[in-house]
Specification:
Blueprint lengths: L1 H18 L13 H8 L1 E6 L8 E2 L5 E2 L1 H13 L2 E6 L5 H6 L5 E2 L7 H4 L2 E3 L4 E10 L17 E5 L3 H9 L4 E5 L2 H9 L5 E5 H10 L4 E3 L5 E5 L2 E3 L3 H14 L3 H12 L11
Parallel strand pairs: 1-4, 1-5, 8-9, 8-10
Antiparallel strand pairs: 2-3, 5-13, 6-13, 7-10, 7-11, 7-12
Helix pairs in contact: 3-9, 3-10
Protein backbone atom coordinates (compact mmCIF):
# COMPACT_ATOMS: atom_id res chain seq x y z
CA UNK A 1 0.00 0.00 0.00
CA UNK A 2 2.82 2.37 0.86
CA UNK A 3 4.50 1.70 -2.51
CA UNK A 4 1.22 2.40 -4.31
CA UNK A 5 0.72 5.66 -2.40
CA UNK A 6 4.30 6.76 -3.08
CA UNK A 7 3.88 6.06 -6.79
CA UNK A 8 0.62 8.05 -6.87
CA UNK A 9 2.28 11.02 -5.18
CA UNK A 10 5.16 10.90 -7.69
CA UNK A 11 2.81 10.77 -10.68
CA UNK A 12 0.78 13.67 -9.30
CA UNK A 13 3.93 15.74 -8.83
CA UNK A 14 5.04 15.06 -12.40
CA UNK A 15 1.64 16.07 -13.79
CA UNK A 16 1.64 19.31 -11.78
CA UNK A 17 5.17 20.09 -12.90
CA UNK A 18 4.22 19.49 -16.52
CA UNK A 19 1.17 21.71 -16.29
CA UNK A 20 3.25 24.52 -14.81
CA UNK A 21 5.01 24.80 -18.18
CA UNK A 22 1.69 25.25 -20.03
CA UNK A 23 -0.19 28.47 -20.79
CA UNK A 24 -3.45 26.74 -19.95
CA UNK A 25 -5.40 23.96 -21.57
CA UNK A 26 -2.38 21.66 -21.56
CA UNK A 27 -0.73 23.27 -24.60
CA UNK A 28 3.00 23.75 -24.21
CA UNK A 29 4.30 27.23 -25.02
CA UNK A 30 7.97 26.28 -25.06
CA UNK A 31 8.19 26.69 -28.85
CA UNK A 32 5.41 29.25 -29.24
CA UNK A 33 5.99 31.93 -31.86
CA UNK A 34 3.31 33.98 -30.14
CA UNK A 35 5.25 34.06 -26.87
CA UNK A 36 8.49 34.88 -28.72
CA UNK A 37 6.86 37.77 -30.57
CA UNK A 38 5.29 39.17 -27.40
CA UNK A 39 8.59 38.92 -25.55
CA UNK A 40 10.63 40.59 -28.30
CA UNK A 41 7.88 43.10 -29.17
CA UNK A 42 8.43 42.36 -32.87
CA UNK A 43 6.80 40.17 -35.52
CA UNK A 44 9.08 39.20 -38.42
CA UNK A 45 7.08 38.50 -41.59
CA UNK A 46 8.37 36.75 -44.69
CA UNK A 47 7.12 38.03 -48.05
CA UNK A 48 7.80 37.64 -51.75
CA UNK A 49 7.00 40.98 -53.45
CA UNK A 50 5.63 40.83 -56.95
CA UNK A 51 2.32 39.15 -56.13
CA UNK A 52 -0.17 41.91 -56.98
CA UNK A 53 -2.10 43.16 -55.07
CA UNK A 54 -1.07 41.12 -52.03
CA UNK A 55 2.67 41.72 -51.70
CA UNK A 56 4.39 44.66 -53.39
CA UNK A 57 6.84 47.49 -52.81
CA UNK A 58 6.50 51.21 -53.33
CA UNK A 59 9.25 53.39 -54.87
CA UNK A 60 10.72 53.95 -51.38
CA UNK A 61 11.21 50.22 -50.91
CA UNK A 62 8.42 49.88 -48.37
CA UNK A 63 6.16 46.81 -48.45
CA UNK A 64 2.54 47.50 -49.41
CA UNK A 65 -0.53 45.46 -50.36
CA UNK A 66 -3.40 43.49 -48.92
CA UNK A 67 -1.11 41.08 -47.08
CA UNK A 68 0.83 44.00 -45.60
CA UNK A 69 -2.39 45.56 -44.29
CA UNK A 70 -3.35 42.20 -42.76
CA UNK A 71 0.06 41.67 -41.15
CA UNK A 72 0.10 45.23 -39.79
CA UNK A 73 -3.37 44.72 -38.30
CA UNK A 74 -2.18 41.49 -36.69
CA UNK A 75 0.87 43.26 -35.26
CA UNK A 76 -1.34 46.05 -33.92
CA UNK A 77 -3.60 43.49 -32.22
CA UNK A 78 -0.51 42.05 -30.51
CA UNK A 79 0.91 45.46 -29.68
CA UNK A 80 4.20 44.75 -31.47
CA UNK A 81 6.22 46.18 -34.36
CA UNK A 82 6.17 44.37 -37.72
CA UNK A 83 9.36 43.80 -39.70
CA UNK A 84 9.33 42.47 -43.27
CA UNK A 85 11.94 40.28 -44.91
CA UNK A 86 12.02 39.55 -48.63
CA UNK A 87 12.58 36.11 -50.18
CA UNK A 88 11.91 34.32 -53.43
CA UNK A 89 8.66 32.42 -53.04
CA UNK A 90 10.34 29.02 -52.78
CA UNK A 91 12.64 30.39 -50.07
CA UNK A 92 9.83 31.38 -47.71
CA UNK A 93 9.12 28.01 -46.07
CA UNK A 94 12.83 27.28 -45.41
CA UNK A 95 13.11 30.74 -43.80
CA UNK A 96 10.18 29.90 -41.52
CA UNK A 97 11.59 26.50 -40.65
CA UNK A 98 14.97 27.96 -39.65
CA UNK A 99 13.38 30.73 -37.57
CA UNK A 100 14.48 33.57 -39.83
CA UNK A 101 10.85 34.73 -39.94
CA UNK A 102 7.93 34.24 -37.57
CA UNK A 103 5.12 33.96 -40.14
CA UNK A 104 4.62 33.96 -43.89
CA UNK A 105 2.20 36.41 -45.49
CA UNK A 106 2.59 35.75 -49.22
CA UNK A 107 -0.75 34.77 -50.69
CA UNK A 108 0.29 31.18 -50.01
CA UNK A 109 -2.19 28.51 -51.04
CA UNK A 110 -3.05 25.99 -48.33
CA UNK A 111 -1.89 22.63 -49.70
CA UNK A 112 -1.28 19.21 -48.24
CA UNK A 113 2.37 19.08 -49.26
CA UNK A 114 3.05 22.45 -47.65
CA UNK A 115 1.16 21.40 -44.51
CA UNK A 116 3.80 18.70 -44.04
CA UNK A 117 6.35 21.47 -43.50
CA UNK A 118 4.33 24.27 -41.87
CA UNK A 119 1.04 24.82 -40.08
CA UNK A 120 -1.62 27.07 -41.59
CA UNK A 121 -4.11 29.34 -39.90
CA UNK A 122 -7.65 29.34 -41.26
CA UNK A 123 -8.04 30.69 -44.83
CA UNK A 124 -8.16 34.47 -45.12
CA UNK A 125 -8.78 34.75 -48.87
CA UNK A 126 -10.20 32.53 -51.62
CA UNK A 127 -8.91 32.68 -55.18
CA UNK A 128 -7.95 30.38 -58.04
CA UNK A 129 -5.52 29.84 -60.90
CA UNK A 130 -6.15 31.77 -64.11
CA UNK A 131 -4.50 31.96 -67.54
CA UNK A 132 -3.08 35.16 -69.01
CA UNK A 133 -2.46 35.48 -72.75
CA UNK A 134 -0.84 38.11 -74.96
CA UNK A 135 -3.46 40.35 -76.54
CA UNK A 136 -2.23 39.17 -79.94
CA UNK A 137 -3.77 35.76 -79.23
CA UNK A 138 -7.29 36.13 -80.64
CA UNK A 139 -8.14 32.45 -80.98
CA UNK A 140 -7.51 30.64 -77.69
CA UNK A 141 -10.72 30.20 -75.71
CA UNK A 142 -9.79 27.51 -73.16
CA UNK A 143 -6.61 26.48 -71.37
CA UNK A 144 -6.88 23.02 -72.93
CA UNK A 145 -6.25 24.56 -76.36
CA UNK A 146 -2.81 25.66 -75.14
CA UNK A 147 -1.75 22.12 -74.35
CA UNK A 148 -0.02 21.36 -77.62
CA UNK A 149 3.59 20.50 -78.36
CA UNK A 150 5.67 23.60 -78.99
CA UNK A 151 3.71 25.89 -76.67
CA UNK A 152 5.39 27.27 -73.56
CA UNK A 153 3.55 28.06 -70.31
CA UNK A 154 5.26 30.46 -67.88
CA UNK A 155 4.81 30.04 -64.12
CA UNK A 156 6.32 31.35 -60.88
CA UNK A 157 8.65 28.75 -59.39
CA UNK A 158 7.28 27.02 -56.30
CA UNK A 159 3.78 28.45 -56.71
CA UNK A 160 0.50 26.56 -56.81
CA UNK A 161 0.17 27.68 -60.43
CA UNK A 162 3.47 25.97 -61.24
CA UNK A 163 2.39 22.73 -59.59
CA UNK A 164 -0.99 22.81 -61.31
CA UNK A 165 0.44 23.64 -64.75
CA UNK A 166 2.92 20.78 -64.57
CA UNK A 167 0.05 18.47 -63.73
CA UNK A 168 -2.52 19.51 -66.32
CA UNK A 169 -0.32 20.44 -69.29
CA UNK A 170 0.80 17.14 -70.76
CA UNK A 171 2.18 18.39 -74.09
CA UNK A 172 3.09 22.06 -73.67
CA UNK A 173 6.36 22.92 -71.93
CA UNK A 174 6.09 24.57 -68.50
CA UNK A 175 8.81 27.16 -67.81
CA UNK A 176 9.74 28.22 -64.25
CA UNK A 177 10.50 31.89 -63.53
CA UNK A 178 11.57 33.49 -60.28
CA UNK A 179 8.41 35.56 -59.83
CA UNK A 180 5.15 36.41 -61.60
CA UNK A 181 6.44 39.69 -63.13
CA UNK A 182 9.37 37.88 -64.77
CA UNK A 183 6.99 35.23 -66.09
CA UNK A 184 4.75 37.96 -67.51
CA UNK A 185 7.76 39.73 -69.01
CA UNK A 186 8.84 36.49 -70.69
CA UNK A 187 5.43 36.21 -72.33
CA UNK A 188 5.62 39.84 -73.46
CA UNK A 189 9.00 39.07 -75.06
CA UNK A 190 7.56 36.11 -76.95
CA UNK A 191 9.37 33.54 -74.82
CA UNK A 192 6.09 32.03 -73.56
CA UNK A 193 2.60 31.62 -74.96
CA UNK A 194 0.70 32.01 -71.67
CA UNK A 195 1.11 32.52 -67.93
CA UNK A 196 -0.64 30.50 -65.22
CA UNK A 197 -0.95 32.35 -61.92
CA UNK A 198 -3.38 33.46 -59.21
CA UNK A 199 -6.39 35.30 -60.63
CA UNK A 200 -6.06 38.54 -58.56
CA UNK A 201 -2.47 39.08 -59.72
CA UNK A 202 -3.42 38.48 -63.35
CA UNK A 203 -6.40 40.84 -63.05
CA UNK A 204 -4.11 43.59 -61.75
CA UNK A 205 -1.51 42.94 -64.45
CA UNK A 206 -4.27 43.29 -67.02
CA UNK A 207 -5.23 46.65 -65.49
CA UNK A 208 -1.63 47.79 -65.79
CA UNK A 209 -1.19 46.52 -69.34
CA UNK A 210 -4.66 46.65 -70.91
CA UNK A 211 -3.43 46.69 -74.51
CA UNK A 212 -0.83 43.96 -74.03
CA UNK A 213 -2.53 41.09 -72.20
CA UNK A 214 -5.89 39.39 -71.84
CA UNK A 215 -7.29 36.79 -69.45
CA UNK A 216 -9.13 33.61 -70.29
CA UNK A 217 -12.60 33.31 -68.80
CA UNK A 218 -12.95 30.98 -65.85
CA UNK A 219 -10.42 29.43 -63.48
CA UNK A 220 -8.42 26.24 -63.70
CA UNK A 221 -8.75 25.69 -59.95
CA UNK A 222 -10.15 27.13 -56.74
CA UNK A 223 -8.04 27.46 -53.61
CA UNK A 224 -7.69 29.09 -50.20
CA UNK A 225 -4.84 31.33 -49.07
CA UNK A 226 -3.42 31.00 -45.57
CA UNK A 227 -0.87 32.47 -43.17
CA UNK A 228 1.95 29.98 -42.62
CA UNK A 229 3.25 29.40 -39.09
CA UNK A 230 5.90 27.11 -37.64
CA UNK A 231 4.89 23.44 -37.79
CA UNK A 232 2.71 22.30 -34.86
CA UNK A 233 2.74 25.71 -33.16
CA UNK A 234 -0.84 25.26 -32.04
CA UNK A 235 -0.97 28.19 -29.62
CA UNK A 236 0.02 30.64 -32.35
CA UNK A 237 -2.31 29.08 -34.92
CA UNK A 238 -5.20 29.33 -32.47
CA UNK A 239 -4.45 32.98 -31.74
CA UNK A 240 -4.15 33.89 -35.44
CA UNK A 241 -7.45 32.14 -36.13
CA UNK A 242 -9.09 34.23 -33.41
CA UNK A 243 -7.57 37.38 -34.89
CA UNK A 244 -8.81 36.53 -38.39
CA UNK A 245 -12.29 35.83 -37.06
CA UNK A 246 -12.53 39.41 -35.82
CA UNK A 247 -10.52 41.05 -38.64
CA UNK A 248 -12.14 39.60 -41.78
CA UNK A 249 -15.13 41.74 -42.79
CA UNK A 250 -14.23 44.38 -40.21
CA UNK A 251 -14.21 48.04 -41.37
CA UNK A 252 -10.40 47.95 -41.64
CA UNK A 253 -10.32 44.76 -43.70
CA UNK A 254 -13.15 45.90 -45.96
CA UNK A 255 -11.32 49.18 -46.62
CA UNK A 256 -8.14 47.27 -47.47
CA UNK A 257 -9.98 44.86 -49.73
CA UNK A 258 -11.74 47.71 -51.51
CA UNK A 259 -8.50 49.62 -52.04
CA UNK A 260 -6.46 46.75 -53.46
CA UNK A 261 -9.11 44.77 -55.34
CA UNK A 262 -11.78 47.26 -56.37
CA UNK A 263 -9.69 50.28 -57.42
CA UNK A 264 -6.57 50.82 -59.49
CA UNK A 265 -5.42 54.23 -58.21
CA UNK A 266 -2.57 52.60 -56.30
CA UNK A 267 -0.98 51.13 -59.44
CA UNK A 268 1.17 54.22 -59.95
CA UNK A 269 2.42 53.93 -56.36
CA UNK A 270 4.05 50.49 -56.63
CA UNK A 271 7.00 49.07 -58.55
CA UNK A 272 7.50 45.75 -60.30
CA UNK A 273 9.90 43.39 -58.57
Amino acid sequence: MKKWLAALIMITALVVAGCSNDSGGGVSTDNSTLQKVLKEKKLIVGMSPGYFPFDMKDPNGDFVGYDVDTANALGKALGVDVEYKQFTFDGLIPALQTGEVDMIFAGMTIRGDRALAVSFANPYFQTGQAVMLPSSDKTTKTWQELDVKGNKIAVGIGTTGALLAKDVFKNAEVLDFEEFPTAAAAMAQGKADAVVYDEPAIAVWKLKNPSEVTQLEGLISSENLGIAIKKNDFETVQWVNSFLYSYIDSPSELASRNKWFETSDWLSEVVDE
